Amino acid sequence: MTAPRGRALPHLAAALDQQAAYDAASYIELAQLAERGTLDFVTLGDTFARPGPDALAVLSRIAPVTGRIGLVPTVTTTHTEPFHVQAAVATLDWVSRGRAGWHIDVSTTEGEARLFGRRHAAPTDALWREAGEVADVAARLWDSWEDDAEIRDEATGRFIDRDKLHHVDFEGTGFFVKGPSIVPRPPQGHPVRVVDATEGAARRTAARYADVALVRVAGPAQARAVRAELRSAAAEFGRDPDDLRVLVGLTVDLGDGERAAEPGHGGGGPRQTAQGPLYRGGPVDLAELITAWHQADAADGFHLTPVEPRRDLERLVNGTVALLQHRGLFRTFYPGSTLREHLGLARPANRYAVTGGAS
């Protein structure tokens, strides 16, 4: 199979999640392996519901030992301060030289709420509305420094042009942020925002604010329908639907040897489980699945979560990706240096520099 003329190649991303792993070396090894396969980005999950290392801190450690792959930690918007969250994500974009993303998530349980003691758990719909507000104010704070706000003029002693710093004066449902940010505008302008849009409560937030929407669906027809819904909703919010990438979230078990996909897997679609769609088979049939779904225009790519991180990611890169590259269905090198460039997304204009005032 070859790629249809005029259709963009699929985007591929992988999760680095490992149970009870605190050694940075294991995460570095996986990220470098994924980069060798020219994947668009890697994700690292995080939640207040279980013990584990801080995802943003781990990926900040990975940033200096990788050069091209995007780095996307999960950072919840619940029980956290929006100003601090945006500054941390902007800092990751700086230390990675423009490769940061932010997987936006919410905390829904009373147990998580008790860790902080500030408020009780809220309904999921309300939490995702709040997440949208945090995504909005984060973008405004990233814009609160114009790109040329730093002067660094030793002769006059001026470091910043204060006329190019802007107060955002944002009032959300449960917070108020004045600004400006304490971190200069990130290299990408806006680090890439990722939302899992599988559940309905998150879908509106994804359509309005996400650059990448993840959907866990078990068939190409369902994926195509959700993608169309997200693109339509994005247009209703005044966005260009082509600025939204929709990736299918798929757990993969590639086993220890080459084998055909088990019944219910392969090109006909993975098997739906309580945890989401699961593919169990060999790297070749996974390449066929990716090709078939992409050529059916079901999605813009895949976000793959290995069952056995080291084994499955190695088989993904050396098997599935290598086959797709051989067929001309996936890139063999990174044409750019930023995550936005990998995804084919433009660097956003600064709203304050363009309009001369807050919007």
How does this model look, in words?
The structure is a single chain. Helix content is 36%, strand content 18%. The chain is of the alpha/beta class and 359 residues long. An eight-stranded parallel barrel has the order 1-2-3-4-9-10-11-14, surrounded by seven helices. It has a two-stranded antiparallel ribbon with strand order 5-6. Strands 7-8 form a two-stranded antiparallel sheet. Helix 2 links the parallel strand 2 (41-44) and strand 3 (70-76). Helix 1 packs across helix 2 (55-62), helix 1 (24-36) runs parallel beside helix 9 and helix 8 packs across helix 9 (309-326). The protein is globular, with a radius of gyration of 20 Å.
What's a concise summary of this model?
This protein has helices at residues 24-36, 55-62, 82-95, 110-116, 124-143, 200-209, 220-236, 283-295, 309-326, 339-343, 351-355; strands at 11-15, 41-44, 70-76, 101-105, 150-153, 158-160, 170-171, 176-177, 192-196, 212-215, 245-253, 271-273, 276-280, 301-306. With 359 residues, the chain is an alpha/beta fold. An 8-stranded parallel barrel has the order 1-2-3-4-9-10-11-14, surrounded by 7 helices. Strands 5-6 form a two-stranded antiparallel ribbon.
